[in-house]
Amino acid sequence: MADANSSPHVVVVSSPGLGHITPFVELTKLLVLRHHFTATIITFSDLPFSLPSSISTIQLPVLELPADTDIGVRISLTMANSVSPLRQILISLQQTTRIAAVIFDLFGVDHLSMVKELHIPTYLFLTSNLFFLSFKLHLPALDESTVGEFRDLPEPLKLPGCVPLKGVDFLSPLQKRESETCAIVVHGARKYNNVDGILVNSFEALEAGAAKFLKQRGGGKPPVWPIGPLTASDSDMWYEDHSHDCIEWLNRHPSGSVIFICFGSGGALSWEQTRELALGLEMSEQRFLWVVRAACDTGLSGSFFNPNQSRDDPMEFLPEGFVENTKERGMTVMSWAPQRQVLGHNATGGFVSHCGWNSVLESLVNGVPIVAWPLYAEQKMNAVLLEEGAKVALRVKEGENGVVRREEVAKVVKELMEGEEGKQVRRGMQVMKKEAARAVGKEGSSYKALEELFLWFCSLLVAVGFPFSARF
Ligand SMILES: O=c1ccn([C@@H]2O[C@H](COP(=O)(O)OP(=O)(O)O[C@H]3O[C@H](CO)[C@@H](O)[C@H](O)[C@H]3O)[C@@H](O)[C@H]2O)c(=O)[nH]1
């Protein structure tokens, strides 16, 4: 059995995908380094990080499925398929440690009852924001009261403390009520209130209204702790090339003069959209650094995460003459760039982003204003939050057939970099940069939330008779 003097142990289970693994690793590092827990990270792919020795890792297999299986279905089935091996792992860990918590992401809700049967507290860590959490908590009721498609709702949804949200901006799996992915999302949302607590990778100053509401809701509901922004802190990830040509290239340009274009770990544009973006960048006359992906019509070309995922040459999808015409002020990078370094570079003054939440947080901590160009998942919701709530982004407007035309690209990029409306956004972003730093600094709201979480972990352990060592 567990040694009475040993440190409490946390088990974190991250679904596949860099967008989830990165914040999970950062959270685990904080629990281990700041609060002296030991930890096991369970994942479904190689971890691209070096880790402290008090963190062990276990890799479970990804379920083999037909190549055209939707990524949400793929991840959900992989996670559901892992209930039994995870149970064995937990039972074996219980022989030697006292498990204070198992922390899942939103794809892990099917594990909850199994973990509870083992008398281990369960937590959910949302790698998105409080707006998203508020939405998910409300979704079961909304699902029951809505007939037809959500996008046909007559009024925007008004959640407490949040900006209004139109049905067309709900997360992408909900855009077809009859789809398997919609059923999976609603099924998952029904379980959110069954956990012992919910952690969110956001911070109070960014979402003050939602934070206030969620913290006060009481009624036996699980407490909510906004603990972000957690972004990858080290530069020791295997896929980052620190001598990347694009950093050299940025070094040659003036402060705040380059707009960076990147659509996350798997985001991709259609061939037509890639063309319009290229021609729009040319028209904008701005300096740019563009991570070009092979064209793809679904918005998502990625597997779980592989920086070099496509076998196609992305450059083949660019308009003829584009690279030559823009070589004085533009650089294109194939498939992957060291994004955190780019956003932290002095020359970077704007970011065209798909609004994946890690990208947003990386932009916020570096004070880089955003052109929001959401593609899939909850990215349209993030865009609404950034543009209408936090006012740190301008959002592109789609034209006919959902394509953002070159004129719109040129207009919005120019506006962000040098326009009057852009000025408000640039200022707003500077304020949020300071708030983000304050939140995770000593006595900041997220720092304190993590302390509270730690005490909560301890109180649940004491309740089951775990004697703490002097360190605690
Ligand atoms: O060329 C690239 C592209 C991406 N990245 C990194 O990859 C991560 C991408 O994460 P994110 O921006 O969150 O995008 P996704 O990988 O698309 O994230 C998934 O997970 C997020 C967190 O839950 C969700 O918000 C998104 O909608 C979902 O697609 C970031 O750390 C980037 O710095 C690079 O370093 N270089």
Short summary of the structure?
This protein has 472 residues and is α/β, with parallel strands linked by helices. It is built from 16 helices and 13 strands. The longest helix has 21 residues, at 420-440.
Molecular structure report:
This protein is α/β, with parallel strands linked by helices and about 475 residues long. The protein has 2 domains: about 10-235 and about 440-465, Rossmann fold (3-Layer(aba) Sandwich); about 240-435, Rossmann fold. The chain is about 40% helix and about 15% strand. It contains 16 helices and 13 strands. The protein has a 7-stranded parallel beta sheet. Helix 9 (about 270-285) packs across helix 14 (about 405-420) and helix 14 (about 405-420) crosses helix 15. The two termini are about 20 Å apart. The relative contact order is 0.12. The structure holds uridine-5'-diphosphate-glucose. Uridine-5'-diphosphate-glucose binds near residues 22, 264, 362 and 378. Belongs to the UDP-glycosyltransferase family.
Distance separating the two termini: 20 Å
Q: What is the helix fraction of residues, given as a range?
A: 25-40%
CATH class placement of the largest domain = Alpha Beta
Q: What fold name stands as the CATH topology of the largest domain? A: Rossmann fold
Major sheet details: 7 strands, parallel
CATH architecture of the largest domain: 3-Layer(aba) Sandwich
User: Total domains, how many?
Assistant: 2
- What order do the strands of the largest sheet run in, or round the barrel if closed? 3-2-1-4-5-6-7
The ordered string of helix (H) and strand (E) elements is EHEEHHEHEHHEHEHEHEHEHEHEHEHHH
Instruction: Write down the overall geometry.
Output: globular
Classification by helices and strands? alpha/beta
Q: State the CATH superfamily name of the largest domain.
A: Glycogen Phosphorylase B
Number of strands: 13
Task: Give the names of the bound compounds.
Answer: uridine-5'-diphosphate-glucose
**Model regions low in confidence, pLDDT < 50 over at least 5 residues:** 303-308
- The percent range for strand residues is 5-15%
Mean pLDDT: 90
Total helix count? 16
